[in-house]
Design a protein that fits this description.
38% of the residues lie in helices and 19% in strands. It has ten helices and ten strands.
């Protein structure tokens, strides 16, 4: 007798992918327990290694650009670090949403970001992004530090920057981390400087912790199957070489995602 499907239509043997919820996050492991609402059927045109590259980076980009920045057709969007893991998804999703996209990349990464649809590329090794003053309707920060400081100078007044690389602010605790008001106070203190900088520029600042979502993963799977979203993988490491994988990611040289398999 065949096993009944779950409420999401999963059956034993289905190929699925997922982002583990925040309260279940832990170390690297060969197996994980995942709520069915956080999972989706894998894109039919991906293998497991490529599918594993999607959830964290893909959901982060989708939630930042569509849900937080509310990118619309014709808007000019600035994405820092477009050749990285989140950046390669962000460029494509912003283009899918109809935006004109500018990103930062080195000469080594320029061909990649242009192949993903980026309209303009700023070589951060020789160009200062602050020369782009007052041009952009939305900003997605993937680098933090000096780059984020310069982003405040190039946004139109009244617009927003969403970061996943700088410091959390109070809304991070309220909206992304379960309404933890004590943590919101801590985030208010540590983010005071950057929020003040944003106010002086007439820009709002938001730090985003992405959330697990099976329904949004299903959307990403559909875009991948339709050829509207490519998965860019730099290197694949076996679990036994996890330290090498982490060292490579931390080096900042990765172009696209780094994947660890249990082989």
């Amino acid at each position: 007798m065949p096993l009944a499907a779950t409420s999401n239509g999963f059956r034993v043997g289905d190929r699925v992918f997922a982002r583990v919820a925040k309260d279940r996050a832990g170390a690297f492991a060969e197996q994980a327990c995942v709520d069915e609402d956080d999972a989706a059927h894998m894109p039919r045109n991906l293998d497991f290694a490529a599918a594993a590259a999607v959830p964290l980076a893909g959901l982060t980009a989708l939630q930042a650009l569509r849900d937080e920045l509310r990118v619309e057709p014709g808007q000019k969007v600035f994405i820092s670090g477009g050749a990285g893991g989140v950046g390669t998804f962000a460029i494509q999703i912003a283009k899918w949403l109809g935006a004109h996209v500018t990103t930062t990349a080195s000469k080594r990464g320029e061909a990649l970001v242009r192949s993903l649809g980026c309209d303009e590329v700023i070589d951060y090794t020789i160009q200062d992004i602050s020369s782009e003053e007052g041009r952009f309707d939305a900003g997605f920060d993937l680098i933090g530090g000096k780059t984020l400081e310069q982003m405040f100078e190039i946004m139109k007044p009244g617009t927003r920057i969403v970061s996943v690389a700088a410091v959390p602010e109070p809304q991070t605790a309220i909206r992304d981390l379960g309404g933890r008001r004590a943590l919101a106070v801590v985030f208010w203190i540590i983010s005071y400087g950057i929020r003040s900088r944003a106010r002086r520029a007439g820009v709002s600042y938001r730090f985003l912790f992405m959330h697990a979502s099976g329904s949004e993963l299903a959307e990403l799977a559909g875009l991948i199957e339709e050829g509207k979203l490519r998965v860019i993988i730099d290197k694949v490491y076996p679990l036994a070489k996890i330290s090498e994988a982490l060292a490579y990611v931390e080096s900042g040289r990765a172009k696209g995602k780094v994947v660890v398999t249990n082989q």
